[in-house]
């Protein structure tokens, strides 16, 4: 897929089908993550965790479940998706540059997923619930001293991705 097309098609998916992403596509997505820019030396202190095991995915989904303030209903903050990639880091610096690294890694994941015709979502809000769930955190087998900073989910979108018209939604000063 042409790069401009990928940019136009990349969008946050909030409803996934239960179709599994192939291992070869997941491998391409992990490779794309590997090409992200990271601050000097941080490739040694960054870690990725891919979860596609259905039973563990369900445990993560339950641990991430949010509750609607309006209705009290449970909300699947992972939108029915079947695969998640966590980005973790250790030795978090005072200036928190690791969060910038994470943003770069996640964006590569989102763009590669789009290029493969997949939906994708940056996952942040529900992770504080997950971090508190010791039982599930243990099952994620993070290397000693690492903490989850962000995550991305990838899967087949319930609705096809539709290209957006690229506009200046972010204000720009040109000098
Ligand atoms: C740092 C960051 C955290 C985000 N966290 C979440 C999240 O927890 N759940 C979610 O559904 N979307 C999350 N998003 C997606 C944004 O809501 C989304 O990118 C924004 O609404 C623009 O929509 P678009 O991605 O379709 O262009 C996050 C995006 C970023 C960059």
Textual characterization of the structure:
With 175 residues, the chain is an alpha+beta fold. The chain has one domain (3-155): NADH Oxidase (3-Layer(aba) Sandwich), CATH 3.40.109. Helix content is 35%, strand content 17%. The chain has helices at 3-9, 23-34, 54-64, 97-115, 127-132, 134-139, and strands spanning 46-51, 66-67, 74-75, 84-89, 119-123, 147-155. The strands form 2 sheets. A 4-stranded antiparallel sheet has the order 1-4-6-5. The chain has a two-stranded antiparallel sheet with strand order 2-3. A hairpin with a 6-residue loop joins β2 and β3 (74-75). α2 packs antiparallel against α4. The mean pLDDT is 97. It binds flavin mononucleotide. The site of flavin mononucleotide (FMN) has 8 residues, from β5.
- Sequence of strands across the biggest β-sheet: 1-4-6-5
Quaternary organisation of the protein chains: single chain
According to CATH, what is the topology?
Answer: NADH Oxidase
Helix content: 25-40%
CATH-derived architecture: 3-Layer(aba) Sandwich
Please write the string of helix (H) and strand (E) elements.
HHEHEEEHEHHE
Which ligands, by name, code or SMILES, are bound? flavin mononucleotide
Could you tell me the radius of gyration in angstroms? 17 Å
CA distance, first residue to last residue: 33 Å
InterPro entries: Nitroreductase (IPR029479), Nitroreductase-like (IPR000415)
Protein name: Nitroreductase family protein
Family: Belongs to the nitroreductase family.
Pfam family, one: Nitroreductase
């Amino acid at each position: 897929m042409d790069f401009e097309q990928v940019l136009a098609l990349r969008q946050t998916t909030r409803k996934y089908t239960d179709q599994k992403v192939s291992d070869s596509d997941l491998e391409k997505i992990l490779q794309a993550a590997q090409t992200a820019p990271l601050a000097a030396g941080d490739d040694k202190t960054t870690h990725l965790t891919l979860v596609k095991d259905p039973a563990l995915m369900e445990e993560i989904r339950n641990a991430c479940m949010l509750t609607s303030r309006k209705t009290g209903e449970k909300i699947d903050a992972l939108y029915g998706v079947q695969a998640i990639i966590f980005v973790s880091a250790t030795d978090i610096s005072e200036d928190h540059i690791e969060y910038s690294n994470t943003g770069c890694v996640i964006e590569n994941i989102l763009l590669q997923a789009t290029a493969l015709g997949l939906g994708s979502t940056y996952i942040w809000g529900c992770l504080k619930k997950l971090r508190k769930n010791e039982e599930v955190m243990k099952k994620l087998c993070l290397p000693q001293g690492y903490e989850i900073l962000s995550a991305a989910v990838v899967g087949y979108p319930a609705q096809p991705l539709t290209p957006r018209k690229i506009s200046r939604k972010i204000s720009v000063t040109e000098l």
